[in-house]
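Email to the structure team, subject: Lon N-terminal domain-containing protein model.

Hi all, the expression group asked for a predicted structure before they design truncation constructs. Nothing fancy, just the tokens so they can compare against earlier work. One-line instruction: predict Lon N-terminal domain-containing protein, return tokens.
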Amino acid sequence: MALPQLIHHHPPSTSSLPSLNPNTMLNLKSYRLLSKSSSTLFHRRKKPNYLRCSASSFSEKHHTNSPKSDDVVELPLFPLPLVLFPGAILPLQIFEFRYRIMMHTLLQTDLRFGVIYSDAVSGTSEVGCVGEIVKHECLVDDRFFLICKGQERFRVTSVVRTKPYLVAEVAWLEDRPSGEEDLDALANDVETYMKDVIRLSNRLNGKPEKEVVDLRRNLFPTPFSFFVGSTFEGAPREQQALLELEDTAARLKREKETLRNTLNYLTAASAVKDVFPSSS
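Reply from the structure team: attached below.
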């Protein structure tokens, strides 16, 4: 039984890559742990609760003791209108009955489930990321507040069952060797573009111009590429395409091109603002 309406991404050429909306992209804030009074829950927000993260949320830990890529295991899945990347932090509120059942099961087992991107138009993607529960709180009405951390990527190979919640067999994904590519140089280029985009975006939004901190924070190229993808807030389909790539160099190049397009847009907008200040 195949997962219904799977999205099969075919990455476009770099000339067709989009620029990102400067008002919604590159969100570098960490989520704070949720409390009972928290109002940052995605279910009842007027705006989608896209993933927010910071470089400090990322580490090499999620790459240690990873399952072998040829392993096939059963994994409960949680379709969401967002993309989780390895190493990123994701808060969730669990309120639906079927997912409360899932949480009760997970809290007695290995605390891991699959987060997979889904929307009403495109359906459910076949590639997702494991979310590991690192903090949870069960309320008196049986709702859950969770803090999850992204771990391994996976591809759905078959659906085991759909009731009471979706469970699928998955195979693990790992990036292939990038050959002769200088991944460190690519990662440094991407970081430079990110800093320029943040600087210009702050200027256009009237925020104080200050030196952008070290965004890479000693991350190796692969986890850094996941971090960059996770900051592309408001562009979940582009994030999904980045998640599905199995080549660190290809992911960094795509991110570099998207950031370059965004920087060109911001540069033009900044020039217009300088000439016509009242138009901003």
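Strands lie at 6-7, 72-80, 89-94, 112-119, 123-138, 144-161, 167-173. The helical segments are 97-106, 183-204, 221-230, 236-244, 248-275. Ping us if the truncation boundaries need rechecking.
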